[in-house]
Amino acid sequence: MKIDGVFSGGGVKAYALIGALQSIDANSLSFERVAGTSAGAIISTLIAAGYNIDQIERLIHDLNVQKLMDAPKWTTLIPYSKWIFLYFQMGIYKGDKLENWLYKQLANKNVYTFKDLKPGYLKVVVSDISLGKLVVIPDDLERIYGIDPNYFSVAKAVRMSAGFPYFFMPKKLPGKSKQKSLIVDGGLLSNFPLWIFENENKRNKRPILGVRLSGYPEQQSPRKISNALDMFHALFSTMIHAHDARYISKSQISNIIFIPVENVESTNFNISELTKEQLIKIGKHRADQFLKYWPN
Q1: How many DSSP H helices and E strands does the chain contain?
Q2: For FRET with 228, which of 54, 111, 121, 244 sits at 20 to 30 Å CA-CA?
Q3: Which residues does the annotation mark as catalytic?
C-alpha cells in the first residue's frame, strides 16, 4: 500500500527510525511522498533518492558520526578557543562533513538538486531565524528567497535542517534583500511536521504515517531545572516540542508511531554500538505493535 511518511528530528536518536522502517517495509507499505526535520530529513531524503531499507540501514550503521564533528583546525590547537569561535560563528562545528556525506550518497543515486526528484516527493523543514519563519524546502524557496528550487542542492537543504543551534554553524541563504538569512535546525519551529501533507479539506489522497522520536506529549515527564544550563536546555526543548505537541493533541493520534527515546541525548556523537542496536530494536518493536492495527 502506498502511504505518505513524516519523520521527526532527534539527532542520533534517529537509529530508532531504522527499526521503524524495517517494520514498515515488512508490512508491505511503501512511500509515495516523504517529509522530515533534521535527522528525519536525512532519512526522508535517502528514501526519496531511491534507497531501500537495507541500504539505508547499512549507510547509517556504517557512518562514523564522530567524524561529522568538523571543528575548525585552530580550535583544536588553542585551548578554549572554540568558545570564542562559538560566539562569533554561532556554532562549534562547520557541518561541511555532514553535507559532503549527504552529497556523496545522493550522487550515487544521481540526485543533486530538487529537479532530480519527483515533484512534491520530498519536503524538508528548516528555520529562518533572520526572518523568523518556518520554511519548507523546496516549496518556499521561490516565494521567500527568489531561488529556483530546481537548482537548489538537496544535500544543502538537509544540512540546514539538521543544523542544531550552537552545535552546527548556521548556514546563510541569500534572499530578495541584500541581507542573507541565517538558517538553523527545522526542529526549532516544527520538529515533527505531520501537517505538511494535509489538505485544507482534510481529505488526503493516501494514509499519512508519522514516526516521532518521543513519547506521547501528555506522557512527558517534567524536567528538573537546577541551574542556568538546565534552564537553557529546557527552554530550547520547549520551543522544539510546544508547536508540535499542540498540533498532535488535535490530530489523528492513530496515525503516529511514538518511539520513546528520552534516555539518549540527541547530540551524543559518542553513541555506542550497543545503544545503536537498542534504538533500532525499540523502533522496530514500537512500529510492529502499532502496525498490527494500522490503518484502521
Answers
A1: 9, 10
A2: 244
A3: 38, 185
